[in-house]
Amino acid sequence: MEDKVDPLPNTGVNRIFGLLELLDDRGGREDIYRLADELGYELGELLAVIQAAELLGFLETPGGDVLLLPLGKRAIEGDTNLKKALFKEQLRRLGLFRHLSDYLQAREGQAASREEILEELAHLLPQEDPEQLFETLLNWGRYGELFGYDPDEDRFYLDQLWVSGPARPGGLD
Predict the structure, then answer these.
(1) 117 CB neighbour count, 10 Å cutoff
(2) How far is 88 from 40, CA to CA, in rounded Å?
């Protein structure tokens, strides 16, 4: 059975963690509209951040509120290594990340060009902007140490820490 592949909300990792920290400061729960005012975000921007954090299992949105979940609290209370580890584990649950991992693992050198990834994204999610999706995927994937991209070599690659089994000789990507 194929994984369900959902698009990623167009937002950065820092905004996700910033929202979690603000929620924690507010006792773990806040009204969506108050958050928009406090952060100075337009509602659409805030909804993208909320959707991202919810997709990652860091919060939920009962009614018109945003509720910090225990995993989200753990992430913001931890050091950078714990944040990255939790983020990585949550990314591994997402169909898009699993699909691209399988796609890259099946390729020579576990890598593809930017254009090949854009074509794959357009095929998977035809209603989405593949360029925007690529940038979000790369931002999240780099933070979670799942994917990398070398623009000089035009090489989107699977981080060796994602792949199970022995590391490649010489520790090269």
Answers:
(1) 22
(2) 29
Q: Which residues on adjacent β-strands are paired with residue 172?
A: none
Specify the amino acid at residue 161.
L
Strand order in the sheet with 59-60: 29-31, 65-68, 59-60
Q: What are the domain boundaries of the chain?
A: 13-77, 80-171
pLDDT at 173 over 80: no
- Strands in 17-144 per DSSP E: 29-31, 59-60, 65-68, 111-112
- Output the CA torsion sign for 126, 113, 53, 96: positive
pTM: 0.87
Closest CA to 13 of 67, 99, 61, 75: 75
| Block residue for tokens 């690529």 | 134
**CATH 1.10.10.10 correct for 13-77:** yes
pLDDT tens for each residue of 131-150: 999 999 999 999 999 999 99
Q: What's residue 104's pLDDT?
A: 95
